[in-house]
Specification:
about 25% strand; 7 strands; alpha/beta; 5 helices; two-stranded antiparallel ribbon; globular; five-stranded parallel sheet; about 170 residues
Length: about 170
């Protein structure tokens, strides 16, 4: 049986922190990883887009994300995914913000039923790994069959296809 898969991801363009300093991204790192996975798996894809864009300025974006985390905010989205029942594997792609996912990911994921789904989480970061994301997903994705994760260095994502492919295939 061929498993049907879906990618749900959040990504941000604009100023981003890297090991070399602040860079201006025209395409977000998580979006790049999501499209590599789509190419490898022929998955359907859904981008989580907040109703109100985050500031392009890195420091301003951090201020907003810290405030949202403190408030346990669930920012409204431009569009919602409502049904994942036809999928076997759900890829969840996210940058790490303040040790977890950006709050719009909580907004979206909390609306879905992950019972029996294989969850594969890909997290873009500059060295902080997956942080609390897997633990947070265990709370959100109750009754998931499994949760597997990979940490991808955002500034190296364009050269990470073989790493991602190895993870996808296992």
């Amino acid at each position: 049986m061929h498993e049907k898969s879906l990618i749900i991801y959040f990504s941000r363009i604009g100023e981003n922190y890297t090991r070399e300093g602040i860079v201006d991204l025209k395409v977000g790192n998580t979006a790049i990883a999501a499209h590599i996975i789509k190419d490898l798996t022929n998955s359907d894809i859904f981008e989580v887009k907040p109703l109100h864009d985050y500031p392009k300025n890195y420091r301003e974006c951090v201020k907003v994300s810290v405030q949202e985390l403190k408030e346990k905010s669930r920012p409204p989205l431009k569009e919602y995914l409502t049904d994942i029942s036809s999928y076997d594997v759900i890829y969840i792609g996210t940058p790490i913000w303040c040790g977890t996912m950006p709050m719009p990911m909580f907004t979206q994921l909390e609306k879905l039923d992950f019972t029996g789904k294989k969850i594969k989480v890909f997290v873009t970061n500059e060295g902080s790994g997956v942080g609390n994301i897997v633990n947070d997903l265990k709370k959100i994705c109750k009754n998931a069959a499994s949760i597997d994760s990979i940490s991808i260095i955002g500034s190296e994502v364009e050269n990470s296809r073989s790493l991602i492919e190895e993870w996808v295939r296992k």
